[in-house]
Hints:
Blueprint: E1 2-4, E2 10-12, H1 21-28, H2 31-42, E3 47-48, H3 58-71, E4 74-79, E5 82-87, H4 89-95, H5 99-112
Antiparallel strand pairs: 1-2, 3-5, 4-5
Helix pairs in contact: 1-3
Protein name: Transcriptional regulator
InterPro entries: ArsR-like_HTH, HTH_ArsR_DNA-bd_dom, HTH_MetalResp_TranReg, WH-like_DNA-bd_sf, WH_DNA-bd_sf
Domain HTH arsR-type: 13-107
Amino acid sequence: MTDTASTGRALPHPDREEIRLEGVLHALSDPMRLRIVRELAAGEAELSCSQFELPVTKSTTTHHFRVLRESGVIRQVYRGTAKMNGLRRDDLDGLFPGLLDSLLAAAERQAGRGGTPG
């Protein structure tokens, strides 16, 4: 249920079998969290929290990352002092085939209409 980085700090993550559809959909229902996921999906590398420029406070940003992690959408690990974020695409695609791609495509279409931040 947790990952321990070289620093010994662990962050709780649900095991693949514990990821629930309603939790994933709830996590992705917020425009800021969807924006984070879109940025992670656009690149294949992990990104640190500080690489995201969101128009919200630091505490709100922390909350959004926590919701994404606790729902199983992202994996967060410490690398040195940086908290790195990666999309759990393999887990999500294995549990809910096509869901992530469909949501990302819909978010892209919506952004093209000016309907979502990011």
